[in-house]
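The instructor's notes for this session suggest beginning with a concrete chain rather than abstract definitions. Hand out the sequence below and ask the class to guess, before any prediction is shown, which regions might be ordered.
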Amino acid sequence: MEGSSKKRLCIVGAGISGLVACKHAAEKGFHPVVFEAGAGIGGVWARTLWSTRLQSTSATFRFTDHPWPAAGAAEAHPDHAQVMGYLRSYARRFDLLRWVRFEATVASLEFVGVGEAEMARWVLWSGNGEAFGDGRGEWRVTVQAADKKEPESGIRRIPKFPDSGGPTVFNGVTMHSMDFFELDRAKAAELIRGRKIIVVGSGKSALDITAECAKLNGENQPCTMIYRSKRWILDNVYPGGLDIGYFCYNRFHELLFQKPGDGFVNNLVPILLSPMRLVMSWALDTYYKRKLPLKKHDILPNYSCYDAISTCSFSIAPNNFIEMVERKSIILKKVKSFRFYHSGIVINDEDD
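After discussion, reveal the predicted structure:
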């Protein structure tokens, strides 16, 4: 590329991927501009609950060129503060903040200068290391300053309901997890304490919020978590003291799966190795089914734990989550559907 204007690079978001892209672009001689909608780096980690911990272990969740500080490395699953500290230390070490424009939201991206028909014929998105297109055209980025943004409402983030069964008919408080995470700890505790709370979903955010509610209200006012899909909720990723990451997140493990376009030989290898996969699947299922009362509380899914771990579709429970379920500080309830009414919600068309 010729000229400094041709070496400018737009990166959207100063989360983990944005920081890595910025570092590598700067090292290659580009002039990156990172547009971050928030007031700081961290991406999704800047907007998580204070008690949220890593799903992965610190050994498998790290930059290759920047080790964890001693405190984070000592934790199997570092918490929110430790992860944010790690990301900030990475940004400081490689002087990345000078490239970041905070409170700048990318409103639109448009590639101009080349017709749609010609762009459709380009095949340079295939990771071959070449630039997109043939050098003609340019990206136009529209950026919106924070003070120009319209305020967002929690109701706007909640899925659509019929007018007669939506959150507007409910006399209590409805809130999306992202809005809850924006509260400081004192305000969150004030909102939770003494209230009857229902958390919708069974993902990581739902588990963290449910656990916080149960810690504050205990068995006298249990928190109910309702969900449509069952999923594996694990208390750790060290079955028998062995780190799952070293078995399921490595290059050899990729040989156990068939992939489109790999050819006859490469697709034959997973078939030959299928007994190994079956043994690993059986071992993980047996270990966690015996250890955790997932079937007892009707949250055990009908797919294997091995498949959940291989596809990262499981959740690590917060500390003491399983114990709080057993003590009935947390009530798990599978539902087909629900709707709001003035004093609560109707689950599967039955008052609850």
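Then share the key points. The first strand starts at residue 8 and ends at 12. The CA atoms of residues 256 and 270 lie 4 Å apart.
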